[in-house]
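User: Could you check the structure of this?
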Amino acid sequence: MVESMNLVILIASVLVVVAVFTSLISFRVGAPLLLVFLFVGLAAGEDGIGGIQFDNAPLAYFIGSIALALILFDSGFETPTRALRIASAPALTLATFGVLMTTGVVGVAAHFLLGVPWLVGFLFGAIVSSTDAAAVFFLLRVGGINLRDRTRSTLEVESGSNDPMAVFLTITLVELIVQGTGENLALELAERFVFQIGLGAVLGFLGGVLIVQGMNRIKLEPGLVPIVVLACALTLFGATSIVGGSGFLAVYVAGLYAGNSKMRMSASVRRFQHVTTWLAQIAMFVTLGLLATPSEFGSVLIPGFLLALILVFIARPVAIWLCLIFFNFSRNDTAFISWVGLRGAVSILLAIVPMVEGVPQGQLLFNTAFIVVITSLLLQGWTIKPIARWLGIIVPARLGPVDRIDLELPGNANQEVVVYRVHPDSAVATGQRIPRWARPSLILRGGKSLRPHNAGRLLGDDQIYIFTPPQYVELLDQLFAGPAEGANDRDMFGDFSFLPDTLIVDVGRLYGFPVAPGDGELTLGELLKRELSGDIEPADRIVYGPVELIVRRIDDAHGIREVGMSVELNPENRRHLPLFHSRSELLALWRLSRRKRLRRKLRARLANRRKKMSALEPSDMAAAADAAAETDAFELADADPLPVTTEADLTSETSDVDPEAKADHDHKTDGTLSDDVPAVSAPAAPVKIHLPAENADDEKSEKPAK
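Assistant: Sure, the predicted structure tokens are below.
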């Protein structure tokens, strides 16, 4: 017995070490890291070089459930309140209705491709309906993809909140298959959903409150606080599941509350959770890889691959489009959200449930789900960054590299010590003053300790220790960060720089392009805010006549601080997909179609009228013409025609107007005027222009030109 336990410990530790070191290969070749962990388990299994016999499905489900609970608690803990504020509505819509629609589409396909009953087909749809939080968080946070805040927050909140919905559907459908269905299946599902999800949300909130209050009131050793927090999270998970609620939703909600509250030793909790989350991911993927038997995949290889393609190219895009159609996402952002629908360990974990509960097709569903997960990770996980670059939705980073270490003061949640290594090109290294609310205490330079008032100006590679309130750390990051990649890229930010309060009419007069009626009194900042309705990020741009107006810099509140202009339009700057139209675009297309139908109708009526009037007497022709004119005026008033240039905007292939802009203003964004409409004029005024700087020092020496 003792020797067997030692052997298990040896094998488990070796697998963890191998999985960690193979991650180096993953970073070099760009493979999804979690796929590498899965392949380590497959290689160590009974059909691999390890030859380990592991077929204990209940144990695998137990390990996976604990690991998923830890991952979801950390996901909630790391989700800031701002992400919830800007993305909660679309993300929760995707996590509920999106999961239901994906379940339905994939369930129908599984019924025909796998030859299983309808309820079992929908069970398979529920198994693969949710995105994997571990995979999505890893690829977005570690993969080096910088997206606009709303898109990134939607993906992260969705991946963390749709797992409870998939778990609910899977367990409920398994119970219905095993125990039989009642008279009203839809009503039974609705009752279970309200009870499990509602109870999980309420208990999760109460659990988060208790965790925060307990850690702030009970004085524990600093090293014990992270352990107690995770133990409380697992206690909440188990207790909620026992009383019939969703334990996974409970730990996610508790993490959301605890991570966004003032809690003692929160920095230590975050560092400890990062370690445990990595260990949980490795343990879950390797265990599920060990459970699989690749020699049994042959019979389901083709159906599994076809189901994966249906999931990736039909079910997920349709669900995303229908759920986000009312939230004014651009087509490219919607396309990217639909592509980042990676399936991972959660789908394999849920595929164990039918096996454990004795569903006759349990092994078939498990093998097929494994094929779907591998296909998703290979197809989507390997191409997320190229797809984002191809769609043109990657935005430049606001900050360059920051070398920072957080040191929390024991027993004090209002102050912490941050240690920065000064970047040679950072703001403080070039003379920027450290704010008064940040108190430097020590500077390390060349192996020597210096007092701040004796050290003089900060130099590159200095290490400085600063006391600061935790909420101001991000402000300090801006002072100690190096230059962001592409900060002076003219292709990205334009050839010329303007202040946001510059009038568009002055810029148009200077560069010789007309201004649309009604835009003469608008500044560049006001024009960009009007057209880029929603979240504004650096490098956002609109086409205005022959130029592009670009957001160069923003402040913390996403207000525009600097505007760039490019005089050479780049048609490849952003792809325009013929899919994923927003509600405003669909409404504009409907109005355009209605206008065209009316024109055809009036042309036909006019031709018929001319034919009839040619046979009238001259005395009757005037009365007939007056009656026809009155009828035509009524028809035109009822048609509600579009603005003059809307049709050109909708059919243009090179227009770079963000589809998130309001449809009612599309004709202004294009900046084109008809021949009989004069350009708006305004009194001459000095225009503040900043030529693009080659580096930070040149930018400071620029002076506005008239």
